[in-house]
Write a structure and sequence with these properties.
The complex is a heterodimer of chains A (523) and B (169). Chain A is an alpha+beta fold. Chain A has a domain of 223 residues. Chain A has 13 helices and 20 strands. In chain A, strand 1 and strand 2 form a beta hairpin. Chain A is globular. Chain B has 169 residues and is of the alpha+beta class. Chain B folds into 2 domains: 53 residues; 81 residues, PH-domain like (Roll), CATH 2.30.29. In chain B, helix 2 runs antiparallel to helix 3. The chains are: A alpha+beta (523), B alpha+beta (169). At the A-B interface, strand 18, strand 19 and helix 13 of A face helix 1 and strand 4 of B.
Chain lengths: 523, 169
């Protein structure tokens, strides 16, 4: 990394408030090293495309140019580097953000300008992401998830680590309904990152400012005024269990099969050419295993007044904060090979998470490999009160039960014609607080939807189901890994659910806490 | 014109205390028009082909197209008659389907936005479609075949009721 022309990361607060803008927001910029980090990525992408496309062409070119090939190549490389860096630097200059009591404002783009305003009371989650390179230089990306579907997250990259943490605490406090002290004095600031300044001079003296990189002047107008909420660790994932879970997964099975197939093919045909047919599948399996390992390594969950905090990642670390009431649905899933260890994977629906399949694998996970006890704890994080007298018995029935164990309403015997293997496992249970859907005989699964998080309901029935007198009950949830549906219930049970669940969801919503979770009981 | 479905499913798809509003029969005409736009040229092409070649076997092609047309002519009006919606105090009910029945309940407070759509064929028949969107993308709450004034009324009513019962996610 060249550090000659860029300010040192360890230097004093490189990111600062800009002049108070035309709309009285305290505009801030992301860290000046951002163009380098981003440009590097773009450069690698360009080089990869170049290498993939131009294999033969380079050889032809080499023939034409003779000895000057390397000179030309280096020239192209330097040109691409310079162009990417200059573009990234301009993009950095164009990007700024501001935090007010109600919203986060983001302006970015050079050619296509974008102004985005995300309301804090609609905040669904705040993530601090540190890709490997950013982590090495002590920077992180702050991502605000709002429930707007694909590409709706507000991404602030990159910020200094402590700044990102302070900003997260500030955003969560504001979203919780707390208010900034009206005149933030440095002495009154509880955050660790107080910058001694002269309050009351929001505009930096322009003479002290370099033209391109505004250097730290007085305190940012929105100085960190909130201490991070205290958190308490609830569970963590031991590395041996994660490795074991990966060994006992479908991906590994495919990987082993693929390697065996390649070996056999090479031995039988006595040439390596035939192996290339299987290679993509093997590479896919390797990439799956790596992404699972990388995403779930060092997984820790903690609880704080700001909600659930998840930390995980090997090369790229991610700290997720999901405020109370933002988890829309939970799914506890047990793959076939995990049965002997009684491990469960706990996935969640959070609006804004998992809009891309790649993210879904690592983002919308509450526990990658939980023991039965930890799975219950994970569920408790989302739903402290299950609304039943004996949660242990009910959850045991949900995890491994069948028929009417634990008070579940099972699928009728007639359902065996449409679901010969799993029909005994199918069942629903309505508690005071949530709907539990149980399914899967070999691949066990339990879906839990708190009543107040129900979006809409549907009941469906095809001709075969009608002949058998069964129907499917569907609960619509926000996009994510959980899509709860209870297949093949009796018509009476489905009709009763349809009738009562709508009323139950309505009452639960009225009783539920406010969106600004710290306002509970004060307003 | 009799109500469809066996008696046993009435409890499920036709709860007792609900008055269903049917959609306009013009929806059937609009859907059949769309089908005709596709099928008639196919039929003509098939007939021309059969006449030109003179082979008896080729007549199966236009015959099949005709059969599809007749089947749609029987099916579509029935399907349209099976569509209904009901506005309750706190939620909107939509039902549809004869073979594959669906009943959807959408609470007003969960509504994120309402769309009113009318394509060229819909407009020429004087109908429009209203679609409710919640935060769940799989909420399939669309009502096709509403008269424009009814669509506008429903849109405003849903919007005002949604506002009164506004909730987060």
């Amino acid at each position: 990394m060249s550090t000659a022309e860029t300010p040192s990361v360890a230097g004093p607060a490189p990111v600062t408030a800009e002049a108070v803008g035309e709309d009285a927001y305290a505009w801030r910029r992301v860290h000046p090293i951002t163009p380098l980090l981003r440009g590097w990525k773009a450069l690698v992408a360009v080089l990869a495309i170049f290498a993939a496309q131009a294999g033969d062409n380079v050889r032809n070119l080499a023939h034409v140019l003779g000895g000057r090939t390397w000179l030309a190549l280096v020239g192209v490389l330097v040109l691409v580097t310079v162009v990417t860096l200059v573009y990234s630097a301009f993009a950095w200059r164009a990007m700024r953000f501001a935090v007010t009591d109600e919203a986060v404002h983001l302006r970015q783009g050079i050619v296509f300008r974008q102004q985005r305003q995300a309301r804090l009371d609609r905040l669904q989650a705040v993530d601090v992401v540190q890709p490997l390179l950013a982590r090495l230089v002590g920077l992180s990306e702050l991502r605000l998830e709002v429930a707007g579907g694909h590409g709706s997250a507000v991404s602030l990259s990159f910020l200094r680590e402590d700044e990102a943490d302070a900003l997260r605490a500030e955003l969560l406090a504001l979203a919780a309904g707390l208010r900034r002290p009206s005149a933030p004095q440095p002495s009154a600031v509880p955050g660790a990152q107080t910058v001694p300044t002269a309050p009351g001079s929001p505009l930096p003296p322009s003479s002290a400012q370099p033209a391109v990189f505004p250097m730290p002047g007085p305190a940012p107008v929105s100085a960190p005024a909130f201490a991070p909420a205290p958190e308490q660790q609830v569970y963590e994932l031991p590395m041996p269990r994660l490795l074991g879970s990966i060994l006992l997964s479908g991906g590994t099975v495919w990987l082993v099969l693929g390697v065996v197939a390649i070996t056999v093919t090479i031995v039988v045909s006595e040439s390596i050419d035939a192996a290339f047919g299987v290679l993509p599948a093997v590479l896919g399996a390797v990439s799956w295993v790596w992404s699972r390992l990388n995403g779930a390594a060092t997984f820790r969950a903690a609880i704080s007044p700001d909600g659930i905090r998840l930390r995980h990642g090997l090369t790229e670390t991610r700290t997720q904060t999901v405020p109370p009431g933002r988890v829309q649905a939970v799914r506890l899933h047990q793959p076939l090979l995990w049965r002997s260890r009684d491990w469960w994977r706990v996935q969640i629906n959070v609006a804004g998470y998992g809009t891309e399949a790649k993210e879904r694998e690592n983002e919308a996970v509450l526990h990658p490999v939980a023991t039965r006890q930890e799975a219950m704890t994970a569920l408790w994080l989302v739903l402290p009160d299950l609304g039943v007298a004996d949660p242990q018995a009910v959850l045991d029935a949900a995890f491994t039960g069948r028929g009417d164990d634990g008070g579940f309403t099972p699928s009728p015997r007639a359902a065996r014609w449409v679901d010969p293997i799993g029909w005994r496992r199918r069942g629903v249970l309505v508690t005071d607080r949530a709907l539990l859907v149980r399914s899967g005989r070999w691949w066990r699964s339990v879906e839990v939807v708190p009543h107040e998080r129900t979006q809409s309901l549907a009941v469906r029935q095809g001709p075969i189901q009608r002949a058998l007198g069964v129907a499917t009950f569907v609960v619509h949830s926000t996009p994510g890994p959980v899509s709860p549906r209870a297949e093949h219930l009796t018509e009476q049970a489905a009709a009763a659910l349809m009738d009562e669940q709508a009323a139950r969801a309505r009452h639960a919503r009225q009783a539920a806490g406010p969106e600004q979770w710290m306002r509970r009981g004060t307003s | 014109m009799t109500s469809s479905g066996p008696v046993s499913t009435d409890a499920l798809f036709q709860p007792a205390d609900i008055v269903w509003t049917p959609v306009s029969p013009r929806l059937a005409a609009a859907r059949l028009t769309v089908a005709a736009i596709v099928l008639v040229p196919l039929l003509v092409a098939g007939v021309v082909w059969a006449v030109l070649t003179g082979a008896a076997a080729v007549w199966t092609a236009p015959a099949a197209v005709l059969a599809v047309g007749v089947w749609l002519g029987w099916l579509v009006p029935r399907q349209v008659r099976a569509v209904g919606y009901a506005e309750r105090a706190d939620d909107l009910l939509i039902r549809r389907g004869i073979m594959f029945k669906t009943l959807v309940v959408v609470p007003y407070g969960r509504m994120q936005y309402v769309d009113v759509n009318a394509g060229p064929v819909d407009r020429s028949f004087g109908i429009a479609a209203v679609q409710l969107h919640t935060a769940a993308p799989n909420t399939d709450a669309s009502i096709h075949g509403l008269r424009p004034e009814e669509a506008a009324r429903l849109r405003d009513r849903l919007a005002s009721r949604g506002e009164a019962r506004l909730a987060g996610l």
